[in-house]
Amino acid sequence: MAIQGAQQMLKNIGCRYLDLFSEFRYAAGFFYRSIVAVSQYFYRPQIGHRVITMQLLFTGVEALALLALIALALGAVIIIQGMSVLPQFGQGSLIYRILIMVITRELGPLLCAFVVIARSATAVSTELGHMVVSHQIEAYVATGVDPVRYLAAPRFIGITLSMLILNVYFNLFGLAGSYLLTRLFQPIHFTEYFHNLLIFLRTTDIVSTLLKSFVFGLIISHTAVYNGLKVQQSSTEVPQRVIKAVVQGFSLCILADAVITMIYYL
Fold first, then answer.
1. What is the rounded (10 degree) CA torsion for 252, 238, 231, 20?
2. Is the predicted pLDDT of residue 18 greater than 60, yes or no?
3. Which of 198, 199, 185, 180 is nearest to 84 (CA)?
4. Which of 55, 71, 78, 150 has the fewest CB within 10 Å, making it most exposed?
5. What is the pLDDT of residues 153-194, one digit of tens each?
6. Measured at the alpha carbon of residue 187, what is the angle toward residues 182 and 192, in degrees to the nearest 5?
7. Buried b (16+ CB within 10 A) or exposed e, 229-257
């Protein structure tokens, strides 16, 4: 009995890993097909331009107020804390480097990604999941419309562009807008503040933050669209797939952030 139990356990583990490998292969194939559809999108007449516009509006424009509030609060807290602690050690100028490291390179792209996942990835997965359940995807296929080109490609473009725009917007508010808020608590000369920021800001910092936002946009759009279209027949699968899209989006974005940061310091 013990031997049979061990064999069954090994069999279950093997089946589980085979299922994970099969899903990973399918997800990689879907990602490749989506990228091909995106690359072809700008060279052929399309009917999904309205989808891109609506995705930019929902993902980008409607998230501006929330991200502005987060960026202002984060930048102000860093400046106030740094200005009160670092001069005690004779390192007051390090506050500008800390601002760039925290806002531009690390928390800026990540916080934007988390907001987009919470708002847009859940909405996209839910929308596509209900389209599968209501047989709208089958109708597209029956009429000769490629769902990947018509549904996935515009959302890839919209979410990725929104991530780039939101990241730049977050950096502007975090570095520049927070200065105005900080003036209410601790006076800092305008010329000194922005001059020191430009001294410590490097090209690699800008490249790093843009690269992260671009990669995060691809990850978020892929997990959202993929999980939405993975719904089979029942509407009860929709919230399950939405949760998977959120978990996968968070996990992959953090992993990608760690990899890009390690490459930065090599």
1. 40
2. yes
3. 185
4. 150
5. 888 888 999 999 999 999 888 887 777 766 776 677 777 778
6. 95
7. bbbeeeeebbeebbeebbebbbebbeebb
- Residues 259 and 247: their CA atoms lie apart, in Å, by 18
- Rounded CA gap, 251 and 245, in Å? 10
Distance in angstroms (rounded) separating the CA atoms of residues 38 and 22: 24
Q: For the chain, what's the residue count?
A: 266
**Stated pTM of the model:** 0.86
| DSSP 8-state secondary structure symbol assigned to residue 78 | H
Q: Which two tokens stand for residue 8?
A: 């069954």
Would you say residue 30 lies in a domain?
no
Q: Are 179 and 78 in contact (CB under 8 A)?
A: no
How many CB atoms are closer than 10 A to CB 184? 8
- Whose tokens are 């109708």? That residue is 139
CA distance 78 to 192: 17
Q: Is the Cβ–Cβ distance between 162 and 56 less than 8 Å? A: yes
Total domains, the chain: 1
Range of the domain at 190: 48-265
CA dist 24 and 36 (Å) reads: 18
- Asked, for residue 123, whether it belongs to a domain, the answer is yes
Residue type, position 176, single letter: A
Residue 69 lies in a domain: yes
